[in-house]
Amino acid sequence: MLKAAWKSLLGRKLRLLMSTFAIVLGVAFVAGSMIFTDTLARSFDAIFASSVGDVVVRPVGGSSDDGTPTTKTLPASLVQDLASVDGAARADGNVTSFGVFVVGKDGKVIGGQGAPGIGLNWNDAPAAHGLEGLEITAGHEPTGPKQVVLDESTAEQAGYLIGDTVQLVTSGKQPVLRPTLVGTASFGDGASTNGATITIFDTATAQKLFVDGKDVYNDAWVTADGISQAELRDNVAARLPAGFEAVTGDKAADESASDLVQAISFISTFLLIFAGISLVVGSFLIVNTFSILVAQRSRELALLRALGASRRQVTRSVLFEAVVLGFVGATIGLGLGVLLAMGIRTLFATFGLDLSGQSLVFAPRTVLAAYVVGVLVTVAAAYVPARRSARIAPVAALRDDVAMPESSLRRRLLFGAVLIVAGAGAMLAGLYADVPRPGWWVGGGILAVLLGVAAAAPVISRPVVASGAVLYRRVYGTVGNLAGQNALRNPRRTAATASALMIGLALVTTMSILGSSAKASVDQTVKENFFADLVVSNVVGVPFSTTIADRIAKTDGVAVVSRLRYANASFDGGGQGLMGIEPKTLERVADVGMVSGSVEDLRDGTVMVSESRAADDDLAIGDTVTLKLPSGKERLEVTGIYDSNSPLLFLPFTTTLKTLENADFAPADNYLLVGLKDNVDAFAVQRAIEEQTADLPTVTVKDQAGFAEEQRAPIDQLLTIIYALLGLALVIAVLGIVNTLALSVIERTREVGLLRAIGLSRAQLRRMIRLEAVVIAVLGAVLGVGMGIVFGVALMSSLRDDGLEVLVVPGWQLLLYVVAAGLVGVLAAVLPARRAARLDVLQAIATE
Asked: Where are the transmembrane segments (predicted)?
């Protein structure tokens, strides 16, 4: 039986290899996402290990809950004192700012888009465990206020050479700097900056720029001299006054790395979701392939049964072929996964996360996952056809025509209906009920509905296919009638082939509705709530210098400038967003959307709360909330409650700018809302403000239309990535149509020969097969678009309370999907139709 299975496999290797494409893509997604995330984790481990000393001393509350530095510092006298601690070789103070960006010679900002722009003071302290920290690789260290050192990668990207004047943008009181580049630096031990830019000043200059010229530091490193980090930490802690803490370098590195890797763990989840979609879609292709191949081998399998092979042996022989197919697909997919990981690395480099300096990490668990996924999915998909093959009676080998036993369509319809009802219930529970991890309920419900429709598709699809058959008969006559009858002949096969395309288009349709609705909701929100004439923001998504607002306020034609700032606090042990506003100016440029109370009631030391936060914690005006801020725990009185869907106050808590500054948050603005005087030329004022910020390429000035476009841009970017990934699932579906038609032509070789013998021309034969492909593709499109509309509308209704109030069903776009599916059917039929037309008539008739 093993030898027979090998011969069968080798005899049909081309057909089977077409089926491996689905497994290859699915495994490639799994392997590629695991390789990339492992590489990401190791890269950050390396950089953070080189960014801490043996012991790190820092002020308690020296950074907010989201890691943003605050104005809390430690005095230089304390650093000097730490150098004399038992077991300490030296102590070095560090001044750090996360708002320093390099502008290249072409006027473009280097980095950003998530990767920080870091400003540091120079010191030659070793990192933890004696690792090399930053070291000068060319030139020399900075020694005055007009000198600067850049990391090698940033200098290269910006086009700067030693001796050039460098343009820098900061979030401090001096928004623009133009020092001379005197050297380049890099981390030792091969650590990469991962897209971050590093700008190094001498200590006095860094203190002047980032800590108001005071002789203080943001933190300090204490280097061990022959003792462990834990022992040194204990010795240092004994010397520290209240308000400061000492942690080992290992702990500090782990905190930084784990927080960041957890923050970007969505990348792995995102890719694995699409791996699952590819594998589910691919399963239909594998089921179809094995069903057709088993049907073609029915006489062969019957002979094996007649010769004494048991049902179990026949089943095992087919499953053996599936194991080999899965192994081959997993092997190719693993190799493609490496290329995919390289592609992902290149893609994220365009968003500022540059891992080009880190080699890919190929862990054993990646190999294991690839083969487990590839083989298990293939075997699971082939199991039903394998079981069906074992049900062939041995006596069937004596007949000319062997019919494969088929399960009842009524049973499939019932099973599909159960899955649809269960899936719909899970979706409703995830969307509207208070259940843990609602996203899993919705995702599982959608998958159940898709599989349920696929199971019931042989019955559900009959009216669509029958309508197509009637249309074909009227338009194309006998050829059209043959095409329609062929599609109706085996409803299981037609439905399975269409189901692969159905799943892909259902998800594409859902995302089209969500994307169109989200963009329309953004436009409506901006139109209804923004009274500001202009909006000023930072293109790299970080705060900018407060002096920019001062400049703009002095511009002719400007009536008011209102500042918005974002921070983070801790409420009931969890991180909470906190905003800072200027109450008197904000109401002049925007409609906040107060539910109760007034913006004017907000004063220093008080807070306003979003409606959803107030409802969750039973808060009302006059109550107090306790927030953990860098300055410590603060009790703030609630003076107002605002709409949770406010486009401006979208965080749970809002207070005044002065309250944020008193809590030791660094003063820097995130947005400026600019109101103009009456009867002024708005375009001329905007040009004047742009001239005021011309030396700050990180800062943009936009009118309402430009701001709405900026808010839509991330939606378009996300949709583009999703469409590209879903496109691979659609490619699998198209290959499924090609594979099914090709195998169907082989299966119907004698029939094709007879049709040619009685007068069907080659052109008519090709047309017949094309029409079959079109009806399969359109069936998948109709079912997919129909379900996608249901999913999209359901999801939008659940997101109405989150600000997505406008429902848009892009009708023309969805119609285009159906038309495109028909064209895809025509293209998918090219090779099978050509093969059928080239068959020798006499040999075809003689085929068994």
From this structure: 16-36, 270-295, 318-342, 362-384, 413-433, 439-460, 495-515, 721-746, 771-794, 814-833
Report the distance separating Cα 190 and Cα 417, nearest Å.
Answer: 58
**Rounded CA separation 297/291 (Å):** 10
Q: Chunk the chain into consecutive blocks of 10 residues (it has 848) and report each block's average pLDDT, rounded to whole numbers.
A: 61 62 76 80 72 88 59 90 91 89 87 75 86 85 93 89 93 89 80 77 93 91 91 92 89 73 65 72 71 66 71 78 83 87 75 66 85 84 73 57 55 85 87 76 82 83 83 86 80 76 84 86 75 81 86 90 87 75 88 86 92 88 89 89 82 92 88 89 89 84 82 78 75 74 70 80 85 85 89 79 77 87 82 78 68
Hey, what are 468's tokens? 């197509």
Residue 665 per-residue DSSP state: B
Two structure tokens written together for 379: 């075997």
Phi and psi at 840, nearest 5°, equal: -70, 130
Strand duo 197-201 + 147-151: pairing: antiparallel
Does residue 677 lie within any of the structural domains? yes
List residues bridging with 581 in a β-sheet.
564, 656
Residues sharing a CB contact under 8 Å with residue 560, sequence separation 6 or more, in sequence order: 585, 588, 589, 674, 675
Q: Looking at the domain assignment, is residue 12 inside a domain?
A: no
Do residues 88 and 229 share a domain? yes
Domain boundary among 211, 229, 263: 263
Instruction: Note whether 723 and 626 are same-domain residues.
Output: no
Structure tokens that stand for 487 in this block:
């599609």
Pseudo-torsion of CA 377, 380, 386, 388, nearest 10°? Answer: -130
Residue 247 CA, chain-centre distance (Å), reads: 34
CB 673 within 8 A of CB 564: yes
Do 713 and 839 have their domain in common? yes
Contacts of 72 (CB under 8 A, 6+ apart): 59, 60, 61, 62, 630, 631, 664
Domain that holds residue 780: 461-529+706-848
Select from 702, 722, 747 the last residue of a domain: 702
* Backbone phi, psi, residue 102, to 5°: -95, 135
Which letter does DSSP use for residue 240 in this model? P
Say whether 302 sits in a helix, a strand or coil. Answer: helix
CA–CA dist 22, 277 (Å, integer): 10
Instruction: Report how far apart, in Å, the C-alpha atoms of 221 and of each of 91, 133, 315, 363 are.
Output: 6, 11, 67, 34
Find the DSSP H helices in 558-637: 583-589, 611-617
Strand partners, 636: 625
SS3 for 258? helix
Neighbour count for residue 395 (Cβ, 10 Å): 10
User: Alpha carbon of 103 to those of 210, 688, 721: distances in Å?
Assistant: 19, 22, 28
Bridge partner residues of 120 (DSSP): 96, 200
The full DSSP string for 303-370 is HHHHTT--HHHHHHHHHHHHHHHHHHHHHHHHHHHHHHHHHHHHHHHTTT---TTSPPP--HHHHHHH
Same domain, 492 and 572: no
Indicate the DSSP class of residue 11: H
Give bridge partners of residue 197 from the DSSP assignment.
117
